[in-house]
Design brief:
Layout (H helix, E strand, L loop, with lengths): L5 E7 L3 E2 L6 E4 L1 H21 L14 H18 L5 E6 L4 E6 L9 E7 L14 H11 L2 E5 L5 E4 L3 E5 L6 E4 L17 H6 L11 E3 L3 H4 L3 E6 L3 E8 L2 E2 L5 H12 L2 E3 L9
Parallel strand pairs: 6-7, 6-13, 10-11
Antiparallel strand pairs: 1-4, 2-3, 3-15, 4-5, 7-8, 9-10, 9-12, 12-13, 13-14
Length: about 280
Amino acid sequence: MSGAPRLLVADSFRVRRHPESGQAQVRGWSRHLERFSRAVTETSQAERSSGDLPTITPGEPPTNTALQAFLEDAAQRIAAYGTGFPRLEFWRDADTSRFSLNLRPLPPLGDTLEMRTAPGITLDQAGRKGPNIERLRDLNVALGAEALLLDPAGNALEGATTSLVWWEQDSDTPHIVASPLATARGEAANRVPSVTESLMTGAFHGSKTAFVPGLVTPGRLLTAEVWAVNALHGIRVVTTIDGQATRPSVRARLEQHRAELDHTWKDVFPLLPPER
């Protein structure tokens, strides 16, 4: 097999130092490990069955042992590095596949975000983080804003690096885009399952707020309060879509959900078991 290396799976997150203990922490730490591990396993199985995926060591598949060893080593290096924006990676090279840890400094953080719709963008493996990172980064640069990806019917799916939460006018009910998981008809996921979204909807910190899945057009979002969420910035208020202003955020509500999300910071160690 020849060609440039391909990024098959990636997972990135913000790391902070606890203000008192100095321990490296990540919001939803074990959830990120679970998402990365699941994607590596699914990708390896799918591409090996098609004969497209080479092995980490010639003649050997990327075993759970190899994956766990990589995560253990990555955790130690992430903890030692401290504040930053590391990325777990699974690559396919010309004649092998490999794990890699990209230790990166923490970029500037923001509270607000502008979005622009990107109709007609079709992504391969849209439900997996990794293969489309470079393309989406270039798209954001070209638009000068966070790309708002749409489904074929024109409904909003996600941002290039974010998931959406919105609040209809005069409503206290938060909404999220309908589940990114494969449907009963066996269709592939059409967006990346967001760790930050799962934290906000109560999967880890026991929130009693009911988030309602649904479909929404960019035009309807303009009449709503819209948040863009991810593992780097947490919650950012979407101020404009295609240059048009969205509804202002309700400050008390925003502060409440940011505070709840901050309860999900977890020490980088121990790796396992997963958070409950």
